[in-house]
Amino acid sequence: MTAVAASLEAVRSRTATAAEAAGRDPDDVRLLLAVKRVEAVRIQEAFAAGATLIGQNRAQELIATEPDLVDVPHETHFIGHLQSNKVNQVMRWADCVQSVDSAKLARRLDRAAETRERDLDVFIQVNTSGEETKAGVTPEAAGELAAVVGSLEHLHLRGFMTIGANSSDAGEVRASYTGLAEVARAVVGSGEAGTGEARELSMGMSGDLEIAIAAGATMVRVGTGVFGTRAV
Ligand SMILES: *Cc1c(COP(=O)(O)O)cnc(C)c1O
């Protein structure tokens, strides 16, 4: 067994234990591997060990790595800040963009998605911790942006994404996750066109995935927990 396969197994066991502890079905929590700065060969090892979903947060890396991964069927999500001049390139490789945080970006993605065979799945990124360094719309503005995204013809709003509070206080981390669940509940219940299926909650990373799963995460994004500490 490769080191990647062994740590992937350990993370799967953590997510399953957390789901069961929360009275949830482990199959309702998908594992997305955050593969920033991970070489294609190690991503291939993760695929060989059964991984099917990866996330890239830089356009350059996405474009550089995906051609080496085309032999294995997988799903790729874009999870980082997306500059408008990179939209077309990212769209070529990504199945979903989780970091939509403005109406302007949403409209640009919609125009670029016109030529795709199927609609582009998107998540809205919400800054639930209020930390200034974090991207995302405020929880208060999420409903309005969801209505815009829902109205766009070539985008399919699947849910919401957040990066948890950067805090050693578990209560603060938990609040940043329950906050995202509340945003999703309000949007899905709003009756706005195109928002009724926005149930995915992408939240939780290597250090706090148990807290996110307890708060309802349907997708956790794990990097170091599987690939080890990244070189800086
Ligand atoms: C890197 C990254 C992760 C994973 O973080 P780890 O602490 O390495 O598990 C999750 N989400 C995003 C957006 C990231 O950039």
From TrEMBL:
One of its GO terms (molecular function) is pyridoxal phosphate binding. The keyword Transmembrane helix does not apply. InterPro entries: Ala_racemase_N (IPR001608), PLP-binding_barrel (IPR029066), PyrdxlP_homeostasis (IPR011078). The modification N6-(pyridoxal phosphate)lysine is found at K36. The keyword Transmembrane does not apply. Keywords: Pyridoxal phosphate. Gene3D superfamilies: Alanine racemase. Its cofactor is pyridoxal 5'-phosphate. It holds the Pfam family Ala_racemase_N. Residues 7-230 form the Alanine racemase N-terminal domain. Belongs to the pyridoxal phosphate-binding protein YggS/PROSC family. Pyridoxal 5'-phosphate (PLP)-binding protein, which is involved in PLP homeostasis. This is Pyridoxal phosphate homeostasis protein. It comes from Ruania alba.
